[in-house]
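Our consortium's second objective concerns turning raw sequence data into structural hypotheses that experimental partners can test. To show how far this objective has progressed, the report includes one record in full. It was chosen at random from the queue rather than selected for favorable results. The single chain below, 326 residues long, was entered without modification.
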Amino acid sequence: MENILYPLKFTPHFKEKVWGGQRLRTLFNKKFDSLPNCGESWELSSVPGSVSFVSNGFLEGNNLTEIIEVYMGDLVGEKVYEKHGNSFPLLFKLLDTTGDLSIQVHPDDAVARTRHQSDGKTEMWYVIHAEKDAEIIAGFKKDVPKEEYLFHLKNNSLKELLNVYKVQPGDVFYIPAGQVHAIGAGVTLCEIQQSSDVTYRIYDWARKDTDGKLRKLHTEEALDVIDFAAKDNRVDYEVIPDNAVNLVQSKYFTTRLMQVIQPVELDYYLVDSFVVYVCIDGGCRIQTQSGTEQLNKGETVLLPASINGVKLLPDPTCKLLETYIA
């Protein structure tokens, strides 16, 4: 039994950010004692320099790239392995903001591969916690000519052109590459995205970094990747207890919300992909043919593609984001 693949947990990478805070500690019991402003916990990553290491079972201490190299399709799914090789195609983060993030945009695959030898960055957000009047900016309110965009950018009034959403826990946003966006202060969320760290910073509220310098902007690089068409990026959905509810279905990933109240059995036999659970509330035990693993709020677990049957035992209730590649 010891060499059968099992639900894998990983040690997070914590990222100090000028806009970060302490809620990842208070909400999820994350351990980052040396960081006064922890903005991000990279829960599952194969981004160079931040590759995740297994923290449980006989594979403890091995990194994600190493175990994909050994287990290949058994770990990530045959089609996923054919396309992505030893690189894990998604990046899972928890973010916490005490200040506004920059207004930014991410390039698509074509531009990112040409300029940065990287995948593009399409992402989604699930809001876990929001302070009173917390905001998210996403997409243009109307179709905007490039000249009008540049005028407002120069005059520090870009926000006037953009959708500004007051947010609360449970809000979901889908942000394809090319969508201008920003997360406001007072938000804690889960971000699921392509495995890419390429960001073009458009506007940064005249903020200075820890050295007292204005942070670099990427005005020219962003111009030819921005989608200037009007968009509403908020996702409408209805929670159905003990059922998986679709939040995002794209060529990059499928994410569903599961509110588990009763024990539930899931069959992934026809899903030729890994499955990742992010626990956003409560907790549960994950029972598979290789044993049982406890998953608590704020934790992430990777189910290898070779695991077909899963039983979830909530304690007493649990909310999970379930993600795979269709």
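The partners drew two points from this record. Residues 146-154 form the longest helix (9 residues). Residues 244-324 form a domain with the Jelly Rolls fold (CATH 2.60.120.10). Both points have been shared with the crystallography group to help prioritize constructs.
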